[in-house]
Amino acid sequence: MTKLFNKLPNHIAFIMDGNGRWAKRRGMPRNYGHKEGVNAIERTIDACIKFGIKYCTFFAFSTENWKRSKEEIEGIFELLRDYISKNDNIFLSKEVKLNHIGILDPFPDDLKSSLVNMEKQTKNFEKLTVTFALNYGGRDEIIRAINNLLEKGEKSITEKEFLTKLDTNGLPEPDFVIRTSGEQRVSNFMLYQMAYSEFYFPKICWPSFNEHHFVKALKVFSKRKRRYGGVS
Fold first, then answer.
1. Beta strands of 84-219 (E only): which ranges?
2. Please, how many CA atoms are within 13 Å of residue 115, restricted to the half-sphere of its CB?
3. Residue 2: which residues within 8 A CB-CB, separation 6 or more?
4. For residue 134, what are the β-bridge partners?
5. How far apart are CA 144 and CA 45, in angstroms?
6. DSSP state string for 152-169
7. Burial label, 18 (beta-carbon count in 10 A; 0-12, 13-18, 19+)
8. Which of 86, 148, 198, 205 can pair with 18 through a Cys bridge, CB separation 3.0 to 4.6 Å?
9. Which parts of the chain sit beneath pLDDT 50?
10. CA–CA distance, 146 with 87 (Å, rounded to integer)
């Protein structure tokens, strides 16, 4: 692997954009694109394991996605059910830790239960931590963190204290953010955590994302110079 890359990211965050457009171009409903997007998630997890990436986060359902049609939302929930059930033994056999950020309260009870149960079963795995952002929004996360501290009577907040109240407490900040479909915006995703992330915007839509595109992205990252406000 060292021949391919000078360095690798520790944590990659994926904004999985383009499912609906990918399906529309093929004369199929939007949920067909989401279904094929799940296959892209599986390919990406396998690639992360192969190349030794320790953390990956997928923006699966945002706080704004509730604006979509009831049919599309229910279709996404069904895909999540199938994915967790299908991968029950895969997460365990591959020793992949499952995690989530966001508020699950509005989700169907059976979906919440299966997700939390799988998190408990995989909590001690260290090979790869896979996080799904579900009913997640960066602004919502920040406001919830601030309110949590205010409720505790805090009058002055340190960055260290603030970080402990974020959904991502315990996760490293993403080194690399990949948004597919060519769109170049963060869409309310991990706003605080992306302060020094490197960004990459391939034009390929998410359902078509595969190991070839993953390797291309890693090569781009390996050439970036990360100065964190300093100079080389």
1. 96-101, 128-136, 176-179, 198-200
2. 24
3. none
4. 61
5. 30
6. TT-SS--HHHHHHHSTTT
7. buried
8. 205
9. 1-2
10. 36
Give me 104's structure tokens.
């699950």
Is 65 marked active-site? Answer: yes
The amino acid present at 174, given as its one-letter code, is P
**Model confidence pLDDT, tens digit, residues 78-115:** 999 888 877 666 788 889 999 999 999 999 999 999 99
C-alpha–C-alpha distance, residues 117 and 164, integer Å: 23
- The one catalytic residue in 10, 65, 148, 188 is 65
**Would residue 19 show up in a list of annotated catalytic residues for this protein?**
no
Strand (E) or helix (H) holding 12: strand 11-15
Pull the structure tokens for residue 213.
Answer: 């595109």
Sequence-distant (6+) residues with CB within 8 A of 8 are 1, 51, 52, 53, 218, 221, 222
